[in-house]
Amino acid sequence: MAEQRSSLIDPQAAKRWQSRPAAASPWLHEEVARRMQERLDLIRLQPSSWAHWGSVGGGLQAHALLAQRYPKACCFVVESEPAQRRYAVSRLTRPWWQRLLGRQPPTQFASPGTNSVQMLWANMLLHMVADPQAMMRQWHEALAVDGFLMFSCLGPDSLLELRQLYRELGWSAPAHEFTDMHDWGDRLLQVGFAQPVMDMERITLTFATVGRLLEELRGLGRNLHPDRFSALRGRRWHGQLQQALASKPLQLTFEIIYGHAIKPKARLDVASHSEISLDEMRASLARRRNQSI
């Protein structure tokens, strides 16, 4: 089921979204990151190095809070697109006088090496990725043994009000399908993580105007469904949408999924290394008897 759902994302549309012009992190993403940080109070490990995967979309304010939490830790900021990387550098590079004091290692705007970080943080990212399994494998490779992953994303009950409205109007879905938290747990195990802990909550945002609701949606993402309306919408359609939204309570519900997992020590595949035939076993026993005589 998880693989079927991942195929409901158009890879080209996902790529265009990732390469969009950089902008301030959405309010909802910052709020989710703040709530996810509260879960760090339950983790004893204090990482000496950590990676923030997708900081611009995931929350630049949240990044500052994480840096305060781990002031002596080396930090890697990972942005796949040049525009996002440049924006992250402009916002997260510390002033020169702070660097001279040397109280905190400089932030590195590059991918961490293999087995090099004790924490990997990825907020509100996976539901907009065409191949989340590949990204999870990257995370697993970057984490050191016993290091831990913290991530969040949207769940399948997100945008229920908007999906219902589109169905009433006879339009195609306003967003692609989002993966269930149990499927995310299975995917973590498939790429080598251990002890996945999944949790979810629902956040409902209310808006004063239709315009403010649509503005919030534009900042959160795009419709990556391969069967979405393929042409440009006109003013008439936009007017219909605004009128339909105005007739309903101006609110949007988001299912937020939180995930935590660790990278365990590599396990030896005993079967692939210890298979011997019965004849080989008898010959080995015979040699031992001859040596003992």
Provide a quick synopsis of the model.
This protein has 293 residues and is α/β, with parallel strands linked by helices. It has helices at residues 2-6, 11-18, 27-38, 55-58, 60-69, 82-92, 96-101, 132-142, 160-169, 181-190, 210-220, 235-246, 270-274, 278-292; strands spanning 49-53, 74-78, 117-122, 143-154, 194-206, 251-262. Helix 3 runs parallel beside helix 5 (60-69).
Radius of gyration computed on alpha carbons: 24 Å
Uncertain segments: 1-6, 269-276
Give me the side-by-side strand order of the main sheet.
2-1-3-4-6-5
Net shape: globular
Q: State the major sheet.
A: 6 strands, mixed
What is the tally of helical segments? 14
Helix content: 40-55%
Number of strands: 6
Class from secondary-structure proportions: alpha/beta
Order of helical and strand elements: HHHEHHEHHEHEHHEHHEHH
- Termini distance? 62 Å
Percent of residues in beta strands: 15-25%
What is the average per-residue confidence, as pLDDT, rounded to a whole number? 88
